[in-house]
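Assess the record.
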Amino acid sequence: MYLRLAFKNIFRNKTRSLITLAAIAFGCISLIIAGGFMENIFYQIRESYIRSFFGHIEVNKTGFFEKGVAKPFDYMISGPGDVIKKIYSAEHVKTVTPRLEFSGLLSTGETTISFLGQGVDPKTEKEISTAVGIDAGADLAPEDTYRITVGRGLSSAIGAKVGDPLIAVANTKGGAINALDVTVKGVFFTASKAFDDRAVRLPIATAQKLLHTGDVQTLVVLLDKTENTDMVIKNLRDLFKKDGLDLEIKPWYEMADFYTKTVDLYRRQFLVLKLIIAVVVVLSVFNTMNMSVLERVGEIGTVMALGTKKSGVVALFIIEGFILGVIGGVAGLAGGYLLASLISYIGIPMPPPPGATMTWTARVDIVPGLFVYAFVLAIITAIVSSFYPAFKASRLEIAEALRHNI
């Protein structure tokens, strides 16, 4: 009986009820759009870093992440082929590629500039570095030997174009100085401008000749899904421990400092947005319920005179708030889904983020957990905002309330 009566009471003043429902629905839509937009930003930044720099997992000799920056040649992986086979034996591993990083000097004959060299396997690296774009020329191929690709910023700084001959100079593993004549095959760009301003990529065999070593520094692992990272890390650690391999593993999220800080910043901003939306919904429903009490004082007095307890009056108004929350929440979910789908279909052109040069297209992800949260928040805020008007109605004196009918 209370449910049917509450439903009828809500639409006695259709205009006010529709405005309240619109406020609740708008709150849900705002949460869905803002949350889905942020989740898409997190996803694109995450995948960009994974597929430009880190892969999902990096495998190095134990101690490399702590001391390898100062002494990189002291932490090299010998016989990487056997290790790569063991990594491939783990479930969810899609690709493994070796890398060899070093610093050196790049010279055109007239201009010399320092660079960060990255020796890569052109075949397997291409499967991982899908977020690395080619600005001019072409990417490295397996048949290339003394060809390199340079970062867009470095290319501009040194004035190197596709086809230009350069001289790469670096210290060998033994401490001597070695140089190679190389040719620019392409100019690339990534999500990091700082990296593009210094980086040179060359076939790992060429890098090994330059450094006089047959070892590699890092094994980069790409998985079938990012969500499987922790599971694979556990399996690889067990495998390495079983085989007595002196190797350590680093997941992508421990290396992507920019990503983790960006996520933390945006999540705190989203928390503020949630609080603002909750306050808007509470005030909207509170206003509707409070006005309803004022308009129905005589009716409330009559109901109480007929034997309805105070708890029954409270229940009636809370059920009205619950119905408003449910209807507004359902409308908000439907509107949020349609609007998110439309925005994702069109796309939002975005400027490069701080420290980057790549533009990108943002979308709004459909996040089931966010839909549940928005719906629950709509119901809870509607119920909470009904408490005071319900309590106020239940405290009316019967005789005083009945006078409003005269």
